[in-house]
Amino acid sequence: MLLYLSVLILEDNLLVLSQLLKSLEYLEREQPYSLTLTVLTDSLQMKRLINSNPDLEFDIILLDRDCKLNGSFHELDIERLGVEKIIAISSIIEYNDDLKKRGVKRLVEKDLSNLYNFNIETMRHFSELMKITPPRKS
């Protein structure tokens, strides 16, 4: 039997994504369970694969707003998936504020000129969620 947490990452910036993945790899090494990742870079994928599949569940969600196809990741069905699982990671404060109005409590302003601090703050929230989320059994 394997233990794991299921993570959804909705982020279109590959540099940001690479930094997040590097940190998640480190966090995973420190845990007695695995992180399984679903990574999507455009909102069309999100609508087709996540919103249209009510059986999908995630333990932690990293949620950007804009995507390369000029769509919005904020069309994610966060009420079904659980606002308590979401870390908002937009570079535009107003977009994170929109999610705050929908009940999201963990908000990180993505500063593209200082990805180090952004990554540290995001991983702090991620670690907090890991501590309160029991791993799933396969």
Structure write-up:
The protein is an alpha/beta fold. The chain has helices at about 15-30, 45-50, 80, 95-100, 115-130, and strands spanning about 5-10, 35-40, 60-65, 85-90, 105, 135. Strand 4 (about 85-90), helix 4 and strand 5 (about 105) form a beta-alpha-beta unit. The longest helix is centred in the last third of the chain and has 18 residues, at about 115-130.
Give a short overview:
The protein is an alpha/beta fold and 138 residues long. It has five helices and six strands, in the order βαβαβαβαβαβ.
Tell me, what's the shape?
globular
Spans of at least 5 consecutive residues with low confidence: none
- Helices and strands, in order, run as EHEHEHEHEHE
Q: Ends: how far apart?
A: 6 Å
Percent helix range = 40-55%
> Helix segment count?
5
Overall structural class, as computed from helix and strand content, comes to alpha/beta
Q: How many strands, what sense, and barrel or not for the largest sheet? A: 6 strands, mixed
